[in-house]
Amino acid sequence: MGKINIAIDGPAGAGKSTIAKYISKTLGIIYLDTGSMYRTVALKAMRSGIDTRDPEKLAELVKCIDIKITHLGSEQHVFLDGADVSKDIRTPEISIGASNVAVVPAVRLKLVELQREIADKNDVVMDGRDIGTYVLPQAGHKFFLTASLDERAKRRYRELQEKGIPGVTFEEVCKDIEYRDINDSTRAFAPLSKAEDAIEVDTTDMSIDQVIKKILSYIKLC
C-alpha cells in the first residue's frame, strides 16, 4: 500500500501551514513545511554573503548544503549545518530571500529531491506553492487555499507578533506578501499554480475549524 500524501498549496498567508499542522495532528502523520527549507537556503546564502538573486552562486551553495528536518513532538525543527535555525528563518528579510532563491532551478531541484524522499518513506501532509503540480503530482489528496491580500497580511502580521519578532509593521508585511505573490506566480520553473485536480478553498471568511472540517470531509483513509 502506498504512502498517504496530502498536498496543500496556495499563496503566502493563505493559512497553508496552520491548516497542514492541524491536519497532520488529526490524522497522526508527518507535516513537512517545504517553505522552511527555502528559508533555510536563503539564511545560508545571507550568512555566506551571497545575493539571494545570484543563480550561479546559489547553485554552488546547494551542492553541499546540510539541511535536516526533524519532528520534536508535533513541532517541526529545521537544522542548518547541525544548528537549529527554526526561529532564525522567520523574519521578513528571510521571507523575501526565500522567494528569491525559490526561482532558481538548482535550488528547487535540490530541495524537491529531499521532499520527495521524505514523502516516499512517510505518510505526509506537505504545504507549499507547487506541491500538487510539481513536487508530488501523484498525491492522493490535493488542496489549494486562497484568501484576500488584506486577510493574508493580517494573519501573517499576527503570526509575527505572536512569535515575538520585533520591528515589523503591517505595511511591510503587506508589501512582502505582494512581492512574494508576484515572484512565486511568475517564476519560470514550477510556479505557484493550482493543480487541475486540486480542491480550492477560499479561507478569507472561514475559521480554522471550518477549513479543517471542510478539508477532512474530502479525505477518506482506509
Order of helices and strands: EHEHHEEEHHEHEHHEH
Instruction: Enter the CATH topology name.
Output: Rossmann fold
What spatial order of strands do you see in the largest sheet? 2-6-1-7-8
How many strands in all?
Answer: 8
Multimeric organization: single chain
Helix share of residues?
40-55%
Class from helix and strand fractions? alpha/beta
At the fourth level of CATH, the homologous superfamily is P-loop containing nucleotide triphosphate hydrolases
Main sheet specs: 5 strands, parallel
Text of the CATH class? Alpha Beta
Question: What would your notes on this structure say?
Answer:
Strands 2-6-1-7-8 form a 5-stranded parallel β-sheet, sandwiched between helices. Strands 3-4-5 form a 3-stranded antiparallel β-sheet. The radius of gyration is 16 Å and the shape is globular. The longest helix is centred in the middle third of the chain and has 17 residues, at 105-121. The protein has helices spanning 16-27, 34-47, 55-61, 92-101, 105-121, 131-135, 149-162, 170-186, 208-218; strands at 5-9, 30-33, 67-72, 75-80, 83-84, 124-128, 141-146, 199-202. Helices cover 48% and strands 17% of the residues. It has a single domain (5-211), classed as Rossmann fold (3-Layer(aba) Sandwich), CATH 3.40.50.
Provide the descriptors you would attach to this structure in a database record.
three-stranded antiparallel sheet; 222 residues; alpha/beta
Topology (SSEs and partners):
Elements: E1 5-9, H1 16-27, E2 30-33, H2 34-47, H3 55-61, E3 67-72, E4 75-80, E5 83-84, H4 92-101, H5 105-121, E6 124-128, H6 131-135, E7 141-146, H7 149-162, H8 170-186, E8 199-202, H9 208-218
